[in-house]
Design goal:
Layout (H helix, E strand, L loop, with lengths): L4 E3 L17 H9 L20 E15 L2 E14 L2 H6 L2 E4 L2 E6 L2 E14 L5 E4 L1 H4 E4 L2 E5 L8 E13 L3 E3 L3 E4 L6 E11 L2 E8 L6 E3 L6 E11 L10 H4 L2 E9 L2 H6 L17 H9 L11 H4 L8 H27 L15 H14 L4 E6 L17 E6 L5 E3 L19 E7 L5 E8 L9 E10 L6 E9 L1 H11 L2 H11 L12 H34 L3 E10 L9 E9 L4 E4 L2 E4 L22 E2 L4 E10 L4 E4 L6 E5 L2 E10 L2 E10 L3 E2 L4 H15 L3 E5 L1
Parallel strand pairs: 1-4, 2-13, 23-30
Antiparallel strand pairs: 2-3, 3-10, 4-9, 5-6, 6-7, 6-10, 8-9, 11-17, 12-17, 13-16, 14-17, 15-16, 18-19, 18-21, 19-20, 21-22, 23-24, 24-26, 25-26, 27-28, 28-36, 29-35, 30-34, 31-36, 32-33, 33-34
Helix pairs in contact: 8-9, 8-11
Length: 716
């Protein structure tokens, strides 16, 4: 299938969205292509861009926030005008994928959306061919697929989407933030961002990394406000692997909130200006302190053995903290049960129904315990590394909240996870500057300091895979048995990829003081029906997962997997430092075998999986390197040498490339009839300056080269 341009329209959570009225189609078309659009651009491509795959002649992003007659109206729209200059761009723009009718349920709320989508082709002779997007598109899995007919190199493709949503006006509401770079994969000749607001709508806006400043445009109406940002001749940007665009490329961040009175201004999760007439472009530390003082209030009740309801397993303070999180993790499991059942249209008994516990509520319960027992702790306000520096942040929704309990060995709490008693420092916060607040008896935030959060090491985030390879007698198939053991952030990543929801629920419910399916007699029949339907659903999901496993492993190994099974040995969900362990056993054919007369060539390097391959276009890099965390990957591979054969070519399996960014080492030995190959690939930091890219390439290339190495099984 050809690559597609995807428009995924972000839905507003917990509101009902009204469809765009049919009679507005012509108005929307006129907004972009008709007389309403007064801005006209020269379609001549500058000489310096003649060899580019495509050039964006015009990029226009538009938003509108308004309120009237008790309803809020929100519009999100975008237009692109693109000159197609080679076959690669022609292929990319030859097919579009978009959601026209969007519907999703969130508990009792339902979202509906209708997107108007327009496409036209402008030929070199100025002839315009407008595509009937409704008639010419096909619906597949609730998505519209639109193939663009008669598109050729040299054409201009001009397209837009336009979404309008309306909902009953609350006294306060904050909209999703908009965070964009001005650059695209192609040069942009003209760019405009425009958005409208009215009274009671507050705006935080910030141009980043050298982008032009926002300007206010006089509308002639005191209630309405129009803002614009324009730029011209924006060079294309590469978006390489391990890269944070909003940290390095020019762009903008903005967010809008509605607050209809003074009380609402204090309640909305938004650090706004004093007046909606003023754009807020910076946030002070004191404003941050004041903001969180109103929103992080310790739980007002007591935390005792009784209300921890059987989740307490010891008398130490750390046991109480564990119990608080275990109790809420049990609620998290019930909320998973609830949402999965509702999605499958299974009626949920009242005693089982559970909304997801809020992370902040869990933290405030831990705060209350600490305050009641004179245990010192700090609140930490951080910002993800991909969002830039914390002192530049203007969006409250981008902040992350952590709690550090200052035991002899401090522990960090950030929220609920299915995979541990409590979460530690999110890797995306490691090594960043954060604001540290003390919170004492009154529950108010007091002193405020700055601190660089700890960074984990490559040895603390480690995956070790023991691989046993047993060839068939004719060397045309192999049984592979792998035991994967991981710790640190790799443990969490592997748990997320391996533990299915039914494994989580089974283990969580088994450890609970009372199984939630043991229901009061008043709902006995309803619970019995629920258990019957959920059991059927789980069995179906398990069968689907079992069927999908060979394909999943095959994609990882680059081979056709004939059969596969997987078993979790240690979920390690209750032990902070214990490794997560699972076994995988599978069979492949002769994908890695080449016959050479009576001898056989085995591509032994491919049995450790697919390492990073750096393409030629990636080898020159000017962007800095941003990775999630330092990490280590170890493999110990044992290969049973068939009787009557000896191994040649071991010298190519011994490699060693190490420097200050990381390394790759490998070794091979034979003892008896067993070949043992050991490899280690590691990344020492979560960030490297662009100047260190050649050093990273050195060990990445060594690791990839190892994956291409072969051994010869020579007939004795």
């Amino acid at each position: 299938m050809n690559p597609k341009i995807k428009f995924l329209i972000t839905a507003l959570t917990l509101i009902v969205i009204a469809p765009v009225k049919a009679q507005k189609k012509e108005e929307v078309r006129d907004f972009f292509w008709g007389n309403s659009n007064k801005t006209k651009y020269d379609t001549t491509i500058p000489e310096k861009y003649k060899d580019e795959s495509a050039v964006v002649i015009n990029r226009y992003d538009y938003y509108d926030y308004s309120e009237g007659f008790g309803k809020v109206k929100y519009t999100s729209a975008a237009m692109r005008t693109v000159k197609i200059q080679d076959a690669a761009a022609l292929k990319l723009f030859s097919e579009f994928e978009f959601y026209q009718n969007f519907r999703k349920s969130y508990g009792f709320f339902s979202l509906r959306d209708k997107t108007l989508f327009g496409v036209r082709i402008i030929k070199p002779n100025k002839k315009i061919i407008e595509i009937d997007t409704e008639k010419d598109s096909k619906e597949i899995d609730n998505k519209k697929i639109l193939a663009i007919p008669n598109l050729e190199i040299g054409d201009i493709i001009d397209y837009y989407y336009y979404t309008t949503s309306s909902f009953i006006a609350p006294i306060y509401h904050y909209f999703d933030p908009e965070e964009e770079t001005l650059c695209e994969r192609y040069p942009v000749l003209n760019y405009k961002l425009a958005f409208n607001t009215e009274n009671d709508f507050f705006v935080n806006f910030q141009s980043i990394n050298g982008a032009p400043q926002l300007k206010k445009v006089d509308t002639g109406k005191s209630r309405e406000r129009l803002y614009e940002l324009t730029a011209t001749d924006i060079p294309k940007a590469d978006y390489p692997r391990w890269f944070y665009p909003l940290v390095e490329l020019p762009g903008y961040k903005f967010q809008v909130c509605l607050a209809q009175n003074n009380a609402a201004e204090d309640l909305v999760y938004f650090i706004h200006s004093q007046s909606e007439r003023d754009i807020k472009s910076s946030v002070t530390k004191e404003e941050i302190k004041s903001f969180f003082n109103k929103r992080i209030v310790p739980y007002s009740g007591s935390v005792s053995k009784k209300n921890l309801n059987g989740f307490l397993t010891g008398e130490n303070d750390i046991d109480y903290i564990h119990a608080i999180f275990k109790q809420n993790r049990f609620k998290l499991a019930k909320s998973y049960d609830t949402s999965i059942a509702e999605e499958a249209k299974i009626n949920v008994p009242n005693s089982l129904y559970q909304e997801r516990p809020r992370d902040l509520e869990v933290l405030t319960t831990a705060m209350r315990y600490c305050l009641s027992n004179d245990i010192p702790y700090d609140l930490i306000i951080g910002l993800p590394r991909y969002d830039g520096k914390i002192e530049d942040n203007i969006l409250a929704t981008n902040f992350r909240i952590l709690m550090r309990i200052n035991f002899k060995e401090p522990i960090y709490l950030s929220g609920l996870t299915p995979f541990a008693v409590y979460d530690g420092i999110d890797p995306i916060l490691e090594g960043t500057k954060a604001y540290i607040f003390a919170q004492r008896g009154s529950g108010k935030l007091t002193s405020m300091t700055e601190e660089i959060l700890p960074t984990s090491t490559a040895e603390e985030n480690k995956e070790n895979v023991q691989i046993k390879i047993t060839p068939s007698s004719d060397l045309q198939s192999f049984i592979i048995e792998a035991r994967n053991s991981s710790i640190g952030h790799l443990k969490r990543e592997n748990q997320s990829n391996t533990i299915a929801f039914y494994d989580f629920l089974k283990e969580e419910y088994a450890a609970a003081p009372k199984h939630p399916y043991e229901d009061p007699s008043s709902e006995k029949r309803k619970m019995e029906q629920f258990v019957k339907e959920m059991t059927s659903l789980v069995e179906k999901r398990m069968e689907e997962d079992k069927k999908d496993l060979p394909k999943e492993i095959g994609e990882e190994f680059g081979a056709t997997v004939l059969e596969a099974e997987r078993k979790i040995i240690e979920s390690a969900r209750n032990e902070i430092n214990a490794p997560f362990v699972f076994d995988t056993k599978f069979k492949i054919g002769a994908d890695f075998v080449k016959n050479a007369g009576e001898n056989t060539v085995i591509e032994i390097g491919k049995f450790i999986g697919s390492p990073v391959e750096i393409a030629e276009k990636e080898r020159v890099r000017t962007a800095n390197i941003y990775m999630n965390y330092p990490r280590t990957f170890e493999n110990v591979l044992t290969f049973e040498i068939p009787a009557g054969y000896e191994v040649k070519g071991l010298e190519k399996l011994n490699k060693k490339v190490e420097n200050e960014t990381g390394g790759f080492t490998s070794s091979a030995t034979i003892q008896g009839s067993t070949l043992t190959v050991k490899t280690k690939r590691y990344y020492l930091h979560n960030y490297e300056a662009a100047m260190n890219w050649p050093k990273m390439l050195a060990f990445l290339d060594a690791a990839f080269q190892f994956s291409q190495e072969k051994i010869l099984l020579k007939k004795k």
